[in-house]
UniProtKB/TrEMBL annotation:
This is Penicillin-binding protein 1A. Keywords: Carboxypeptidase, Glycosyltransferase, Hydrolase, Multifunctional enzyme, Protease, Transferase. The lineage of its organism: Bacteria, Bacillati, Actinomycetota, Actinomycetes, Mycobacteriales. It catalyses: [GlcNAc-(1->4)-Mur2Ac(oyl-L-Ala-gamma-D-Glu-L-Lys-D-Ala-D-Ala)](n)-di-trans,octa-cis-undecaprenyl diphosphate + beta-D-GlcNAc-(1->4)-Mur2Ac(oyl-L-Ala-gamma-D-Glu-L-Lys-D-Ala-D-Ala)-di-trans,octa-cis-undecaprenyl diphosphate = [GlcNAc-(1->4)-Mur2Ac(oyl-L-Ala-gamma-D-Glu-L-Lys-D-Ala-D-Ala)](n+1)-di-trans,octa-cis-undecaprenyl diphosphate + di-trans,octa-cis-undecaprenyl diphosphate + H(+); Preferential cleavage: (Ac)2-L-Lys-D-Ala-|-D-Ala. Also transpeptidation of peptidyl-alanyl moieties that are N-acyl substituents of D-alanine. Gene3D superfamilies: 3.30.10.20, Biosynthetic peptidoglycan transglycosylase-like, DD-peptidase/beta-lactamase superfamily. One of its GO terms (molecular function) is penicillin binding.
Length: 769
């Protein structure tokens, strides 16, 4: 009673200036007491793949909370016996011990004795491990002053009014540190013995109970003798406090510690996620943007269910590593695979030839290569954006494109080549192509001049906007151009860069993969999401802030474009790689290579999986890349149809049977034939003036090219292009100059001689019977 009166007087002074300070302190105590009652402590968040297998553990303090029924009763007996044997009797404060400690500490001028109950220890540890955010607050939580002791007493008394004894003991065991980075009894049991807290034996429980006194000094790996003596001290108290089990406890004292050869500690963070490290890192960034910060992940005890498909991830990673060796100097490959969908684009796999890690000498990196702007461009894959923009303006995939061997696009940037006038972009083809070609054929064969001519008709601005809509969103970010706040997209438009259709700029490989998913989803863009759901420590789903899906082009356009891209693996630039891996199902695809061969890509999708394989120089000074074998070289010859295509086909083929059968979507006749206002009138055989008038009336501009012909001079032989074209674009009239004489018709073949007449075959007449 005397101790209670003294303590009450110190805690609650009623008058003078000290009373004002005490009132403020009391308010602080009340706030902390509320947190104590709530009892939320830092816990490990677990990130798992689609099968439920762990990818990574995220934590600040390695702690797994468990309920009372999952803690061995012997553990509870041991901790109470050594730390607070009157725990079941007192009301939060052991007044005998407190009064003794108070007198000792007062006479000595400092804190010499503790007298702390489990309630008070819980308060102190909670303030240190949960409430304190700064070094100063952490020092205050353990300061050796009567004031701190008195605050603990008041909070402990409040705690007893709100919680049962079992709740307080369970919270204490879930909170306190046990050394070697372990917090809470469940992780301690796993760290030292590889068992769950419910399965701890008495010797194991006694050892852990003894370590609470000083988890840093009592480390069984550094101080086994000290830990053994402390464990036996705990067993001695149990012999005194539970005489009925004394013989058992005496036998326990003779046992060895029995700890694991080394602490069993879960690795922390994405750095230990192996080939899943890049995916893990992207998932954490995604969650931060969705409303769950990294700090929350490190403390929240969440279950993070991701979309990563282990079969797809393993197959893609193995394929990438087989084509682009992880130890290859200065060259990296990345590939992401996304599941198309109308409501989400789930990220199934994210692989890199680089290992995720901090040892640069072993070719490791933590740079976000698969989802940041890297490399020198995806090359001719960008012709897809020009084609989609042209289709939106009315061009059909059955229309024919002119394929000159050389083309000068007037009014466009990127000029300055030898013989190329200013304000003109000059381009030539890398090989010989027939002319004209249908849009579908041109996508498979990829002649440069056809698409530079097409972007001139479509316009750079609509083409860039189409790239942004379909998924290349980084191009629209302010500052992405490297010139102040200007975006890369705005810079391309401002300079009217016709070269955009040839893909000469760095890309975000994940965004390119998502373009494939957008087209495969009938034109529905969704952000590439690595997260299926997040569950909090109470089992409730956590709402996430995510960008909504958008219908960015008409479904008919996307589905018809998917069909137009269906020839590359059959007779186009990727056909050889497709045959090499035995690919034999429908796939929409496009290859791409930059002019200098410093990066190259393959872009492909089915109705179930979409993605891009991208090989590029990842050194500060990338050079040209050669194929067979893949290497840095002086005069590059890497093409998208080579290693990138082989990576994609070899990575996807083994998991095809995990998904629905592959098939092309239906085409839309509007986008096959072209829009009505895009149809080029049939003017063959008309006089030039009449044909010119018909084309102008249909909304086209006209140019005339005389050609040797046998028709009368001024007669139209044909048009280029024909079928359909961009409304308002130039249609070339090929007009006969009448210089050729019509070839005489071939002589008629002589009549064939009549076949000889054969004598009749006699027919036997049957005799009567």
């Amino acid at each position: 009673m005397l101790a209670a009166v003294i303590v009450a007087g110190l805690l609650f002074p009623l008058a003078g200036g000290f009373g004002y300070v005490s009132n403020r302190a009391a308010a602080t105590v009340d706030n902390v007491s509320a947190e104590l009652v709530e009892g939320t402590v830092p816990a490990v968040s677990t990130m798992v793949d689609a099968s439920g297998a762990p990818i990574a553990w995220l934590y600040e303090q390695r702690r797994f909370e468990v309920p009372s029924d999952r803690i061995a009763n012997d553990m509870k007996l041991a901790i109470v016996s050594i730390e607070d044997r009157r725990f079941a009797e007192h009301g939060g404060v052991d007044w005998q011990g407190t009064f003794r400690a108070f007198l000792t500490n007062t006479s000595s001028g400092g804190v010499q004795q503790g007298g702390s109950t489990i309630d008070q220890q819980y308060v102190k540890n909670f303030q240190l491990l949960v409430v304190a955010k700064t070094d100063a607050e952490r020092r205050a939580a353990v300061e050796t002053t009567p004031a701190r002791k008195l605050r603990e007493i008041r909070m402990a008394l409040n705690l007893e009014k709100q919680l049962t004894k079992d709740e307080i003991l369970t919270r204490y065991l879930n909170l306190v540190p046990f050394g070697n980075g372990s917090y809470g009894i469940q992780d301690a049991a796993q760290t030292y013995f590889g068992v769950d807290a419910k399965d701890l034996s008495m010797p194991q429980a006694a050892m852990l109970a003894g370590m609470v006194q000083s988890s840093s000094k009592l480390n069984p790996y550094n101080n086994p003798q000290g830990v053994l003596e402390r464990r036996n001290t705990v067993l001695d108290t149990l012999i005194q406090n539970i005489p009925s089990r004394a013989d058992e406890f005496r036998k326990n004292k003779a046992e060895a510690l029995g700890v694991l050869p080394e602490p069993k500690a879960l690795p922390r963070g994405c750095i230990a996620a192996g080939d899943r490290g890049f995916f893990c890192d992207y998932a954490m960034q995604y969650l931060a943007n969705a409303g769950i910060s990294i700090d929350q992940l490190d403390k929240g005890g969440y279950l993070i269910r991701t979309t990563l498909d282990p079969a797809v991830q393993n197959s893609v990673k193995a394929s990438v590593d087989s084509v682009t060796k992880p130890d290859l100097d200065d060259i990296a490959e990345v590939m992401s695979i996304i599941a198309p969908g109308q409501d989400s684009h789930a990220l199934l796999a994210m692989a890199s030839s680089r290992e995720y890690g901090l040892d640069s000498g072993a070719h490791q990196t933590v740079q976000p290569q698969p989802y940041s702007m890297v490399g020198d461009g995806a090359g001719s894959i960008f012709k897809i954006f020009t084609t989609a923009a042209a289709m939106e303006k009315g061009l059909g995939i059955a229309s024919e494109l002119d394929v000159p061997s050389f083309f000068a696009a007037k009014g466009m940037g990127n000029g300055g080549a030898p013989g190329c006038p200013p304000e003109t972009y000059c381009v030539k083809n890398a090989g010989n192509y027939r002319s004209p070609m249908t849009v579908t054929e041109a996508l498979a064969q990829s002649p440069n001049t056809a698409f530079v001519k097409l972007i001139q008709d479509v316009g750079v601005t609509p083409t860039v906007d189409m790239a942004l809509r379909l998924g290349m969103r980084s191009y629209g970010e302010p500052g992405s151009s490297g010139h102040g706040s200007q975006s890369l997209a705005d810079m391309i438009k401002q300079q009217n860069l016709g070269s955009f259709t040839l893909g000469p700029l760095a890309i975000n490989p994940l965004e390119l993969s998502n373009v494939a998913a957008t087209i495969a989803s009938s034109g529905k863009w969704c952000p590439p999401t690595p997260i299926r759901e997040v569950i909090d420590r109470n089992g409730k789903q956590v709402p996430l802030t995510q960008a909504p899906c958008e219908q960015v082009v008409e479904p008919g356009l996307a589905d018809t474009l998917a069909n137009a891209l269906g020839q590359d693996a059959i007779g186009g630039t990727a056909a050889g790689s497709a045959r090499t891996v035995g690919w034999n199902v429908p796939v929409s695809a496009k290859t791409g290579t930059t002019e200098t061969h410093r990066s190259s890509a393959f872009f492909g999708f089915t109705n179930a999986m979409a993605g891009a394989a991208y090989i590029y120089g990842d050194s500060p000074t990338p050079g040209e890349i050669c194929s067979f074998p893949l290497r840095s070289c002086g005069d590059g010859n890497l093409y998208g149809g080579n290693e990138p295509a082989r990576s994609w086909f070899a990575g996807i083929k083994p998991v095809l049977d995990h998904f629905p059968p592959t098939a092309f979507p239906p085409t839309d006749e509007k986008y096959v034939r072209g829009a009505n206002n895009a149809q080029i009138p049939d003017v063959g055989g008309m006089p030039q003036a009449q044909a010119n008038a018909a084309l102008v009336a249909a909304g086209f501009r006209v140019s005339v090219v005389p050609q040797p012909g046998s028709q009368p001079k001024g007669t139209v032989i044909g048009t280029s292009p024909n079928g359909s074209a961009i409304p308002g674009s130039v249609v070339t009239l090929n007009v006969s100059d009448g210089t050729q004489t019509a070839a005489p018709p071939p002589p008629a073949a002589p009549p064939l001689p009549a076949p000889p007449r054969l004598p009749p075959i006699p027919i036997p007449i049957p005799l009567p019977r």
